[in-house]
Amino acid sequence: MSDESSAEIRDTRADWMTEHRAMYLRSGGAEGHIMDLTAVGAHPFGTHCLVKYTGRKSGKIFITPLCYGAIGGEVVIVASKGGADQHPAWYLNIREADEVQFQIATQAFRASWREPQGAEREKVWNFMVDCYPFYANYQASTERTIPLVMMKPLEAIDVFREADATGVRQL
């Protein structure tokens, strides 16, 4: 998949993603955690988290909704960008940070993060593809290895609010 075809997917889903993020934030996480993803080839009860991070160039705070899985006491997110040839901005920003913040439903956490390697990466990747089959299509459509980010909660923090975001990223 080229960056152009990935952009088409984002454009098609941009309104849905923007509305999803707003619903999640406005409800304090009571809504938006579980969404039906059958329209994009996944399961009816897809789980979503919010990830808060600082822009490495702008210094602005961004909040991005992402599918997630939980494995071994860590939360896993996938830097797929719909199979684009470039990594998503949120991933590039997290890579520059020592910690990240995430929210699952009505609970938010400050967390450490890491990228699994070798056999562990393969195990985690297979788990995520089982949860979200479209990731296999995304990987098949790009030459880059799609990164996995594993977040380990360090402490509970306040849930995210719309006002926390000082930047709005094009989804």
From TrEMBL:
<comment type="similarity">
    <text>Belongs to the F420H(2)-dependent quinone reductase family.</text>
</comment>
<dbReference type="Pfam" id="PF04075">
    <property type="entry name" value="F420H2_quin_red"/>
</dbReference>
<dbReference type="GO" id="GO:0016491">
    <property type="term" value="F:oxidoreductase activity"/>
</dbReference>
<dbReference type="GO" id="GO:0005886">
    <property type="term" value="C:plasma membrane"/>
</dbReference>
<dbReference type="InterPro" id="IPR004378">
    <property type="entry name" value="F420H2_quin_Rdtase"/>
</dbReference>
<dbReference type="InterPro" id="IPR012349">
    <property type="entry name" value="Split_barrel_FMN-bd"/>
</dbReference>
<protein>
    <submittedName>
        <fullName>Nitroreductase family deazaflavin-dependent oxidoreductase</fullName>
    </submittedName>
</protein>
<dbReference type="GO" id="GO:0070967">
    <property type="term" value="F:coenzyme F420 binding"/>
</dbReference>
